[in-house]
Design a protein that fits this description.
This protein is mostly helical and 79 residues long. Helix content is 56%, strand content 0%. The chain has a domain at 1-54. The chain is built from 3 helices and no strands. Helix 1 runs antiparallel to helix 2 (21-31) and helix 2 packs antiparallel against helix 3 (42-66). The longest helix is centred in the C-terminal third of the chain and has 25 residues, at 42-66. The N and C termini lie far apart (56 Å). 10% of the residues are buried.
Amino acid sequence: MTIPPAMAAATIPITPGGVGVQEMAIQKLFLEWPDLPESYSGLIMATVFRALLVCVALIGAIYYFTGFGSHKANPAASQ
């Protein structure tokens, strides 16, 4: 349960979009877990998490800007 507190930390207005703050919070919170091996990198996990968020946002942006889901009103159909 480290991601929700890290996402909350990203809402602190230190940097635009919380970039860097969330990654640092995830890294610090994962260091607190006793079971993780030394080679585990919370920073890599945080970067992958941020990249997934950007990819999902890009899919939504492409859908929005291409007008794929917009429907034109047909005046003849309303009669």
